């Protein structure tokens, strides 16, 4: 099955109509989807996080499954849409049956974070924008109460998260409940573009909403600490059955977990060997740790303050777009703009948000700089800019949004998995090395430092959740083993490492999806090259793959190679 876009705009089909209707339904049931994609909708409201809300989502998904199963594809584009949307909806139904929503607490990507994080995406340019934000703040307490109700259902059903996740998440939630926390700071700085003052009545409404939202987060923290933590599980690992389900959700593919674990060990060793070789290029005879210490002492490789960091990111991202466009990639004008942003939060992490459907909001790379962090190393972060920008997420996700003539809204803006997106971004990091953009040994060491961490995560994540023997042969993997293992393989401060380990423990299958996704992307490229021989054109391969939009990795394989996934 192939999915190369035709020259002329493609006529919409019944399967497109099913997908478009699903986007509308999905955005109505979860208005944050509209905020994320940039669609009109009930932007000041929230999804129903209660058990009834989850049941309503399942019912809507089940109806689409029935429609899709009865629909006949008219072309290859339809075939991809049907295959991938069915796979995603069926996996969602499996997750509901496994009651994952009743134990949905983790330190990075549960409703505890998402209910607040949507404000990072909401526009703040006009009085009308702030009125929508005020409405959203007013609806936040009900969203939190629905979430608590679902977690209480989990307690009644004996389906509970790990205590570590509950307590760590409670600490983050408590910060948002603080009088000096996000809600008061966010609304206290409210102004229209150019610093224009908002009407007193709107400012009063924003202050009321901030207080109500902070109160709701205080209530959530109390629930976590006094009600959920005492009954939460002492086990960090989720076991093979749940892990396999969540791995499939993050990859859109079924993998052999035991083989992947062994491959992860081998890949980690390969990363260490590569790093050791490059360390000697930086300082003859140096170990990796000595080379890193040498680079960290080099003032010429440092950025001071977030303003300097933002300028550097923007210049590097713009240069990559200009130099790669028309040579190694076909980059449409609409996605030649990327904005590099310092996030309004201070929680750590670097992430990308797609352009909205009409490109009035460009793609953005965000850096959430932790409080107190004022120095940044260019040798570490050059590969990060390529990962988040071009040829990474910005090219991949922006290209999907651009393909309006071929792809329906679901395919352009909502489809895809972490394994597809993050796998491509890691593939892009290595590709930039192949294209000569990491000729400086320091930059290559930075890229390998990041890739080594991703390989280590494959081993740690599968090891802990499946109860594999630990690397020292002294027993099954534990959280303490995971922490020491990451300390040995990641050159970051201990606070970052602790957060990352807690993330892996609470979000099974997500962290390995990066490196496993990269592996699958590289395997597909190599197989297409083998099949096409001397006629293989990597630029054409990239365009054909990215023109699919977001898909699961099994669908990607089926689209590029044919046969069965």
Please describe the topology of this protein.
Elements: H1 14-29, H2 31-37, H3 51-70, H4 76-97, H5 111-117, H6 127-157, H7 163-177, H8 182-188, H9 200-228, H10 240-251, H11 257-282, H12 288-296, E1 302-304, H13 305-324, E2 338-342, E3 350-353, E4 363-367, E5 375-377, H14 378-388, H15 393-402, H16 409-414, H17 418-434, H18 441-466, H19 479-489, H20 494-506, H21 512-532, H22 538-546, H23 553-561
Parallel strand pairs: 2-4
Antiparallel strand pairs: 1-5, 3-4
Helix pairs in contact: 1-2, 1-3, 3-4, 4-10, 5-6, 6-9, 7-9, 8-9, 11-12, 11-18, 14-17, 14-18, 17-21, 18-19, 18-21, 19-20, 21-23
Task: Provide the low-confidence segments as ranges.
Answer: 1-7
Question: What sequence of helices (H) and strands (E) makes up the elements?
Answer: HHHHHHHHHHHHEHEEEEHHHHHHHHHH
- Give the CA-CA distance, first to last residue: 11 Å
The tally of strands reads 5
Rounded radius of gyration (Å) = 23 Å
Largest sheet: 3 strands, mixed
What's the overall average pLDDT, rounded?
93
Tally of discrete structural domains: 2
Helicity range? 55-70%
Can you tell me the overall shape?
globular
Give your account of this protein's structure.
The protein folds into 2 domains: 14-236, no CATH class; 248-513, no CATH class. It is mainly alpha-helical. It has helices at residues 14-29, 31-37, 51-70, 76-97, 111-117, 127-157, 163-177, 182-188, 200-228, 240-251, 257-282, 288-296, 305-324, 378-388, 393-402, 409-414, 418-434, 441-466, 479-489, 494-506, 512-532, 538-546, 553-561; strands spanning 302-304, 338-342, 350-353, 363-367, 375-377. The model is unreliable at 1-7 (pLDDT under 50). The chain contains 23 helices and 5 strands. It has a 3-stranded mixed β-sheet with strand order 2-4-3. It is 63% helix and 4% strand.
